């Protein structure tokens, strides 16, 4: 009898009947596989409960006021949750959808289609589900929302577990993957304090898609190929629907497929199928988002069209000696890239698309390929999340014994991949395509994580899979780990229990006071101007109209945000008044934490970015570019507090505490029509 560890687990994609007919099943194998599935669900639930407990312990969420709960949805999280709240408060589902399609609260003096502009179908779906299910009497809407997100973490862990099981042939690898994911919680997820972020909705579906791809590429899979194709499509569609950065993540995946095709690890059918799954997922989202032009003008669609077109007309690419094939591949790649940029340029010209140009400005500035004074690019560059991966991340990963087996597995698999790439016969036996895909997946997304820290959450989860595959796929790694003295006596259980036992409480009295004042002392149709992060909370907690918000994927909104932020620049009161009135603002909220910011270094404070964009020298000691000049005006956010006549004639202070100053904008001054265009 075969060992139950390797009898059926390596065929978990197949149904029980198929395995039985193939003669691969015994009662031991059935029990062993059932235990494996049970462990996967158990680890998923453990992760879900762990995250929910950390969230409760950190905020004392069950005992704070409703306004405090809503304030805890910081920055863009509050904006997204406000649409869930808005749908529940609507008289009917139809009216709620109509309000989202014809929204005039999110951006003052504008009516926008939120379902087209933003990825908020998950909020719509949850609100409809909450209305239909008989749970209103014993489960508050906010708990229904956050528990759904935490449940997706269980799905995430199960998907990683199954991928490791498929690769190694043992569910023990999946168990190790789940344990590593939980132990490295700081670097694998941030869901407990950024619940509504789009990545927390989308990454579980990306992990499921990788599981489906891994199963699809298994050499022995035949019967369930069509099922896997549909599963890949559904998971790709859900991933794209829930995150606005889907096109950039899929572009990296398309490059992985292209690389595997170039070294002949995938068949023509597999390559075409994987590309078409991506295209189908994106186009389905394009339809649901009311023909969002940002998707049609995406770089990934241009790349796939170019790759398939050139592949069709360039035959004989994989023939000849190694040097000949390498030369052909380089020429082929250059042609594909040239055609990609040509198609993308023409598509954006035809669609008049400028919604994503800030992302490309950020990339150019990050790698010193373009100007660094651009305001939008600088907003990203100065945030730690968009910087390079800190070295302490690797220290933490090494502390949980994840980094060492990962690096060793990576080195070994990379060497095998290079050797297999030079072979012609027996390659699929020596190096499976599903393993090759996962190797390139972790390499490509690892490079992305090192370049941009925020993207590490795509990499670290899959990192657990690769390391577990290395450990459980062969006994070699045990010897290597012992050689490196990695079998330390570190105990992780006390650390987890310490985190679970640490009790805190949400405390932000100044923001609570501000939200209470806005709700009770200002008209319901009042328009508020201020920082993107604060305004998202104002919309959620008070329902007031905003001038700008954190969903930055719109050129006109980015320009309006830059103009509204002039309240922190060196501008005259007349100029600021004209800007705010042109945006339709009735009130402006000034934050001391921004006006007197010390969190960022000089040159990265918001007031510095505005000074640079306006051509003015920056505050404080330090060098300035020779073309910068002193501003003829003092800084607005500081000087308005002096209550001089030039300011009180245009602005009336209506609220203040230690953190915020709110001013009502007088209507007397005449507003230039083109003020927001300058």
UniProtKB/TrEMBL annotation:
Keywords: Glycosyltransferase, Membrane, Transferase, Transmembrane, Transmembrane helix. GO terms for molecular function: mannosyltransferase activity. It holds the Pfam family Dpy19. The keyword Transmembrane helix applies. Its main location: membrane. InterPro entries: Dpy-19/Dpy-19-like. It comes from the Eukaryota. It is a multi-pass membrane protein. GO terms for cellular component: nuclear inner membrane. The chain crosses the membrane at residues 30-52, 165-183, 227-243, 255-277, 283-309, 329-347, 403-423, 435-453, 459-481. It is found in: Membrane. Belongs to the dpy-19 family. PANTHER family: C-MANNOSYLTRANSFERASE DPY19L3-RELATED (PTHR31488:SF4), DPY-19-LIKE 1, LIKE (H. SAPIENS) (PTHR31488). This is Dpy-19 like C-mannosyltransferase 3. The lineage of its organism: Eukaryota, Metazoa, Chordata, Craniata, Vertebrata.
């Amino acid at each position: 009898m075969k060992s139950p560890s390797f009898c059926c687990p390596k065929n978990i994609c197949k149904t029980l009947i198929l395995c039985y007919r193939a003669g691969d099943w015994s009662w031991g194998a059935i029990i062993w596989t059932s235990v494996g599935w049970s462990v996967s669900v158990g680890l998923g639930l453990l992760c879900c409960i762990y995250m929910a407990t950390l969230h409760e312990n950190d905020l004392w969420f069950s005992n704070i006021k409703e306004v405090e709960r809503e304030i805890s949805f910081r920055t863009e999280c509050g904006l997204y949750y406000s649409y869930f709240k808005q749908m529940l408060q609507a008289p009917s589902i139809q009216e709620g959808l109509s309000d989202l399609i014809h929204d005039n609260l999110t951006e003052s003096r504008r009516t926008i289609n939120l379902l087209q502009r933003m990825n908020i179908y998950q909020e719509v779906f949850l609100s409809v589900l909450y209305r239909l299910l008989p749970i209103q009497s014993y489960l508050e809407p906010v708990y229904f929302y956050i528990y759904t997100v935490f449940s997706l973490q269980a799905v995430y862990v199960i998907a990683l577990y199954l991928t490791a099981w498929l690769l190694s042939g043992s569910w023990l690898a999946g168990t190790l993957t789940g344990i590593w994911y939980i132990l490295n919680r700081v670097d694998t997820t941030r869901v407990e304090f950024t619940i509504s972020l789009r990545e927390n909705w989308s990454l579980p579906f990306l992990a499921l898609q990788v599981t489906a791809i891994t199963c699809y590429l298994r050499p022995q899979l035949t019967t369930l190929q069509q099922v896997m194709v549909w599963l890949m499509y559904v998971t790709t569609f859900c991933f794209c629907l829930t995150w606005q950065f889907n096109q950039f993540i899929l572009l990296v995946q398309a490059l992985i497929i292209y690389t595997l095709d170039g070294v002949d690890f995938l068949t023509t059918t597999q390559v075409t199928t994987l590309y078409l799954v991506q295209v189908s997922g994106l186009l389905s989202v394009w339809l649901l988002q009311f023909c969002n032009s940002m998707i049609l003008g995406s770089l990934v669609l241009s790349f796939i069209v170019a790759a398939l077109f050139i592949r069709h007309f360039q035959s004989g690419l994989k023939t000849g000696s190694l040097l000949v094939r390498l030369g052909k591949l380089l020429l082929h790649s250059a042609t594909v890239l040239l055609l990609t940029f040509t198609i993308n340029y023409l598509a954006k010209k035809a669609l008049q698309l400028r919604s994503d140009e800030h992302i490309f400005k950020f990339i150019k500035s990050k790698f010193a390929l373009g100007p660094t004074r651009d305001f939008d690019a600088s907003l990203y560059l100065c945030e730690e999340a968009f910087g390079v991966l800190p070295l302490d991340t690797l220290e933490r990963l090494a502390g949980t014994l994840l980094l060492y087996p990962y690096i060793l597995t990576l080195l070994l698999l990379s060497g095998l991949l290079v050797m297999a790439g030079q072979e012609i016969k027996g390659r699929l036996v020596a190096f499976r395509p599903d393993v090759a895909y996962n190797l390139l997946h972790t390499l490509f997304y690892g490079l992305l994580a090192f370049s941009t820290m925020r993207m590490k959450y795509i990499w670290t989860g899959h990192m657990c899979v690769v390391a577990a595959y290395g450990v459980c796929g062969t006994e070699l790694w045990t010897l290597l780990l012992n050689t490196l003295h990695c079998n330390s006596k570190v105990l992780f259980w006390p650390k987890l229990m310490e985190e679970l036992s640490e009790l805190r409480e949400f405390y932000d009295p100044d923001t609570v006071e501000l939200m209470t004042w806005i709700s009770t002392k200002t008209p319901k149709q009042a328009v508020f101007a201020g920082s993107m992060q604060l305004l998202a909370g104002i919309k959620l907690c008070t329902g007031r109209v905003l001038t700008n918000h954190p969903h930055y994927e719109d050129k006109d909104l980015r320009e309006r945000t830059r103009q509204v932020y002039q309240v922190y620049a060196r501008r005259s009161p007349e100029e600021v008044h004209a800007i705010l009135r042109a945006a339709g603002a009735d009130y402006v909220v000034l934050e001391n934490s921004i006006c007197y910011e010390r969190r960022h270094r000089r040159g990265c404070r918001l007031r510095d970015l505005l000074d640079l964009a306006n051509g003015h020298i920056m505050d404080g000691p330090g060098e300035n570019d020779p073309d910068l000049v002193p501003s003829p005006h003092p800084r607005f956010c500081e000087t308005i507090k002096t209550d001089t006549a030039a300011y009180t004639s245009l602005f009336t202070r209506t609220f203040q505490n230690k953190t915020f100053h709110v001013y009502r904008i007088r209507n007397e001054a005449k507003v230039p029509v083109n003020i927001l265009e300058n």
